[in-house]
Amino acid sequence: MERLNNFSSFIDKNFKISIAFFALGLVLGIIYSINLLGFSLNSETLNPVNIRAIHISLMLYGFIPLMLSYLPFLLINKEVGFHKEGLRYLNLYTICWYIFLVFMVISLLLGKNRGLAFYDFAYELNFLLALSGVFYIIALYKFIRLYKILPLWIKVCLSVVIIAPIALLVLMNPIIGQVESTVTGPHGDNTLGMSLALLPIYYLIIKLLNQGEFKARWNILWILPTLFYFGTVFYRIFFEPLTYDQEWFAQYLTLLYIPLLYRWYKDSNIQNLAKKALLISILAFLFVDIEGNIIFIPAIRWIFHRNDLIVAHAHMAMGISVFFMVISMFINQIKELQKSIYINSYLFALIGIFVVLSISGFTEAGFLNIPTQNLWILRTIFGCFSFIFISAFIKINLNTKDYSKLELYNIIGILSDGFGGIFLILFASFIYPLFGFSFTGVYEYVVFTFVSMTGIIHYMALKNPSSQIILSNLTVIIRVFASSVFFALYASGKLGFEALLISLFDLIVVFVYLIYFYQKEIVCKD
């Protein structure tokens, strides 16, 4: 039971950490929607192009894929338990993924994007994902050693994850990969590949949730599209681009997934709450599949391709289909997911966004005449409503206990440095000119990052009472040196009056700590 609790704690902790990235993506999507309504600041970082890139990238590479990657481990834990050493490597994999997300967000925030629809971040960051994949392989290898006889799905899964890091670096490569080569074309084989990738996930989720042994039937319906997908990828890489008709044929093979998923769902024996979430996911997936095949007809595609109807299509695919995959996976383990109000709120909001964007798409195509402004107001409202779902995971401590003076010092540090640093990263390029300060947009971001890190030290001090004095003293030492450097830069004329203000602020905080906290703590300790 103790080992199970350790694994459950790992899942619960990282589900809630990773959903914070999902919440950030939602917030940035709302901000982008507000920008489209004409409300924006002249901020170097918080501009519509950067915000849109981060929003889409977090939706695609944040919470959802990380949680889906836990699926084999959840299933192994169900069948044979978990491996303690394997869990350590799974944790390293997760941390490496978080590092990738931080690099991705910051680089996009500072304007480094590729201008692509779904692969906007710098190619070099794929090496971080590949490294995380190495930890993932080690973790999976250690987990599967618990089996006396390896099931077929384990062998297939292990083969895929071994190939994945190399395939990632090849397929995402800007020269020989599939990214740029599918931007302007109909990319039917690309759609087939993305749809195909979801099928084994559906199979494993059903196997995870099923009460008793699940036996998949009608497998020819996924084997045939698989052969054609790999055939089109190799043909594109080694010979020449596919014609529209060739991609069209590959696209229409996805219709075989409709009867296949129907058969799997009907054969499953899953508890009602999880089965409802899985049904929502499958219905959304099949809707996108059918709609996508209709839009792929040339006479229709040239009207709707890359307008808001396609964006709505993507929201249905990612926001409902894939997201509710994750919900069905974890609904029996994360207690907050068992509150229908949150799930229904998110579903209602995403359907609202889908409908609004679909209407906007028909308006852009000339079939309707509705003011775009009104549609984007509704889009923003539904976006705000989607954030209600996250409230299930936001734990606000309303305890009115009396904080010690040292705790209050660290709370002030969190607010001033932690949130202040983030605020400056987002708005400094807009605020500095208002006060007549120069802003180069280079070294300042390094300074703001260090300021934020000081706030994190304050947070660690607040959360770890046993180390609170040491960590608080560390923040003082940092402030002394930072204050002295900023004063030196001001005195030498290398920085302006803003450097003196920063120096004075840190120096004042230092003396407040020394007068009211430091000596008191030493005396109490003695």
Automatic annotation (TrEMBL):
Keyword Membrane applies: yes
Record's keyword terms, sorted: Membrane, Transmembrane, Transmembrane helix
Record field: transmembrane: 21-41, 53-77, 89-109, 121-140, 152-172, 192-209, 216-237, 249-265, 277-304, 310-331, 343-363, 375-396, 408-435, 441-462, 469-491, 497-518
SUPFAM superfamilies: Cytochrome c oxidase subunit I-like
InterPro entries on file: Cyt_c_oxase-like_su1_sf
Domain of life the protein comes from: Bacteria
Key word Transmembrane present: yes
Protein name as annotated: Cytochrome oxidase subunit I profile domain-containing protein
Organism: Arcobacter caeni
Top-level taxonomy: Bacteria, Pseudomonadati, Campylobacterota, Epsilonproteobacteria, Campylobacterales
